[in-house]
């Protein structure tokens, strides 16, 4: 998904990018005065990188920010900063709020492993949450689901939560869970934009809360397994702890 958020000053911020066809390019140009009203383009997920170069070629005048992996993978883009920096994450507050998930590898994730860690984006004015990969939602088979009493669609955490999505330590599952709880407490979103699949309009907060509660048994199981395999709580070589779980993580 790509989200374009209008700030209170009338300008725009783009979160994540997709490939531009002529129709979409014309829409963005009309909305943003050929890109001149875009204050920043931000990559929120370490592995969502493919369309950034083409977007940069279309709008080279804009300021670009990304995850540490974005900066490493695409040096052709003159990145102005990465999302580890609190100053970047707070740059458009209070219009837009950003937080990095806890409990897994965000700085140096290995390809083909964790897609669980990302930056969550909250837009208070529309009560919308933008999430890439960490949470997935679909209603594409809604008619089929209704036969089984599941009219609200399917919402799950990225499947890597069951293995490599979190650090292999006993506390990692609970760090992620507590981060999610704090996010839900602080951000009363109603809608959610999830990468790859669908957008849920209305009722998203309640469904994410339900998803987190339903995952509690998995958190317990993973914690016990990690403690048995890794009693000293050591992180893999090259990994970085990400344990900002309380309140404003930049505080």
From TrEMBL:
InterPro entries: DUF4336, RibonucZ/Hydroxyglut_hydro. Residues 226-251 are annotated as: Disordered. It comes from Adineta steineri. Transmembrane segments: none annotated. Coiled coil: none annotated. This is Metallo-beta-lactamase domain-containing protein.
